[in-house]
Amino acid sequence: MNTEIDSILKKYKPGRRDELIPLMQEIQDVNGHLSEEAIVKIGNYIGLSTTKIYGLATFYDQFRFIPAGKIRVTVCNGTSCFLNGSKAVINAIRELTGLQPGQTARDGIFSYEIVTCMGGCNNGPVISINDEYYPYVKPEQIPELLNKLKFIIEND
Amino acid sequence: MEDLKKFLINEVLLFESDTLPADTEKRLQEIRRERTSKPVIFISSGTAGLIAGAGKTFQAAQAFIGDNEPGAEIVKVGCSGPANFEPFVCIQLPGKNKLFFRNITEDKVDTLLNGVFHNDINKDDLVGQQGGRGFELWPGIQFMDEISFFARQRRVVLNNCGCYDPESVEEYIARGGYKSYVKTIRHYTYEEVCNIIEQSGLRGRSGGGYPTGLKWKQALNTGSSSRFLICNAKESDPGAFTDRLMLESDPHRLIEGIAIAAYAIGASTAIIFFRRGSEHAYKRLKRAIESARDYGLIGHNIMSSGFNLDIIIRKEPGAFVCGEETALVSTLEGRRGMPQLKPPYPTTSGLYGKPTVINNVETLMNVPLIMQNGPEWFNSLGTEKSPGTKVFAVAGKGRMSGVVEVEMGTTVREILDDIADGIKEGKELKAVQLGGASGSFITGDSLDIPVDYDAMKEKGIGMGAGGFIIIDETTCMVDLVRHLMEFMHTESCGKCIPCREGTGRMLEILESVIRKPVSEDSGTTLERFKGVMQLETIASVMRDTSLCGLGQTAPNPFLSALKNFRDEFEEHIFDRKCRANICRGLRTFTIDVDKCTGCTACASKCPVNAIYGTRLQPFFIVEDKCIGCGICYDICKFSAIKVK
């Protein structure tokens, strides 16, 4: 992981604050999250204190500091999905997993987040699981859907 | 490929006259697939299509072709708009008009293709035909532009969407693309381009309606050595997906628009600020930029004109407020995306303190068309003060949804009744919300308002960037306003106190309105009334004292809902009732003694154990314990449970 971060850092110019966000985005794309170690390294490279980088990263929704789960659920809560009942879907996921949006379960299997619009406004409510879209989701389907995936992962 | 590239550059792009020689035209027709000897299947594969399963349709079609019609070609095209029709498939047999079929999921592919190739067309999934001169008509099949969804539209910006393979620069050039750009950089000066755009009367499509030509001139006249052009492709309004469709379906026109705009302001770097989460559009745009670079349309000394241009894509890191100009600039500089005090406007001091023009995707999509057809043509579209067209993302409870383009001056009612074809399941309309999370609700007579910047501004309605959400009677307005306020509260950047605290207080008060009272005797009722009395004051303070559009417009949904649906608010506050039966906290259920069989289904499912009774005897619900979740209501097979 160390070398990965170093090789990403090399692609960017040191000391350039305007490249900070793309740099963090790339590290997160590769590692799945921003670790403490990564933030310290970025700080040394860009020439900014760790607190400033952490402050910047927490301002934006994209950055996460704990790894995402093996089953990453994204729920659309845009106005159109909301009208079609996304709230019930979110509640179903919350009840099943016991997690808040943005959290990852302790066993590292589930994590879920809420986004404002995924663009499937006609097929709402839409959720995506590991980047695969599921249209017209009903809250009753959630346990079956997620448990099936969990079963596949656990037996893999 | 090299041969084709040379042909397109030398014989088409660099050809000085607008009318091309006949044999060039003939070859272009082949590239455009207008003269083909083999059947072509076009599969709409935008995000909406992929959600509906277009990827599987494509695989099934490929398998079918491999087995039965090896000569045929399958093309993944962009999305043409109607989201209900996805996966939308179009089939063109040699010499015949194109046929369009809707909802062709994986399982329908074989029957459909078998039928079409053997002249036995399945009329159930057929939408219509479309063609041009020299094509044979299909008898007894209606034309695409006769369908009400398309008939009321005026497709100018979207005319390429869904017609060609967005990953092929060749096809775009064959459709007349990049020609006006090459002409512009070779023959026009910066000022001339700005003048043409100013004459056309093009106004920023992001909602404010600021004249684009004027903005460009301001940046051009600053006398700075370097300038920047930013394309704001970060549409993050919930329910708006117009930009994404354009990026996916016609990325080359956006690149052409960016390139012309960059030339007009003398910028050699253009940045596309891209929305997170649209991976599909991102890939297509990236590939489009690569192929434009390959054709020498981006880079150093483009087409020997002396103009240099580099286009960079930057993904937004996820903050709603970054759509605001100054916040966007802060984000690009690697700081927190917080709005700054204006003036100075970005046109004088923007990115790295240099003059920066920030334009919306739709605005830039219009630019190549104006350069191609002239400002007079653009002026003839739309209304006097707002020329051109406007793209909307129609979503919500309409019968049809998707991306539509109408001429300015079309009324909201026309879009609602003709294009969206009314409300799903015959329900009553409640309101239409224009312009994303902070848009106002339009109801009743106001629906006759034309789509026009000034007419809408007069009525206090913001046009927004393209959200058009249809709300029907099954929606509770108080709950919807609360939802939008929650969104605003999470997305407030925290710089201005009125917005940071105001959205929070408004959310709290709205929540207290729909929350179940612990006891009507205690202070909660008084608190609720006090809060409601203050809502309007908070709203007006926020509007007057916030720095950016987010804070200023955050109370809009609440204010317009209160104006139009005051009775619904009062019902929630005084009668503690929700007429749409949405607000959980206000629902209580009772069991009809005559219908209950005592099956215990509800009691076993109740999450708070509020249902008591003896087996095979009627059960009852303890009102104080009930949280109004409605699980018992859904589970009862004998409809014994009633909403009180």
Describe this structure in words.
Chain A has a four-stranded mixed β-sheet with strand order 2-1-3-4, covered by helices on one side. In chain A, a hairpin with a 2-residue loop joins strand 3 and strand 4 (132-134). The longest helix of chain A is centred in the C-terminal third of the chain and has 14 residues, at 141-154. With 156 residues, chain A is α+β, with helices and mostly antiparallel strands. Chain A folds into two domains: 2-59, Orthogonal Bundle (Arc Repressor Mutant, subunit A); 71-154, Glutaredoxin (3-Layer(aba) Sandwich). Chain A has seven helices and four strands; from the N terminus they run H-H-H-H-E-H-H-E-E-E-H. Chain A is 47% helix and 12% strand. Chain A starts with a helix and ends with a helix. Chain B folds into six domains: 1-29, no CATH class; 32-147, 3-Layer(aba) Sandwich (Glutaredoxin), CATH 3.40.30.10; 177-380, NADH-ubiquinone oxidoreductase 51kDa subunit (Rossmann fold), CATH 3.40.50.11540; 389-472, Ubiquitin-like (UB roll) (Roll), CATH 3.10.20.600; 477-575, Up-down Bundle (de novo design (two linked rop proteins)); 587-643, Alpha-Beta Plaits. The model of chain B has no long low-confidence stretch (mean pLDDT 89). Chains A and B meet through helix 2, helix 4 and helix 5 of A and helix 3, strand 10, strand 14 and helix 19 of B.
Under CATH, the topology of the largest domain in chain A is which? Glutaredoxin
What overall geometry of chain A do the principal axes of the alpha carbons give? Answer: elongated
Number of strands of chain A: 4
Major sheet of chain B? 5 strands, mixed
CATH class of the largest domain in chain A: Alpha Beta
CATH architecture annotation name of the largest domain in chain A:
3-Layer(aba) Sandwich
CATH class of the largest domain in chain B: Alpha Beta
Overall SS class of chain A: alpha+beta
**Assembly of the depicted chains:** heterodimer
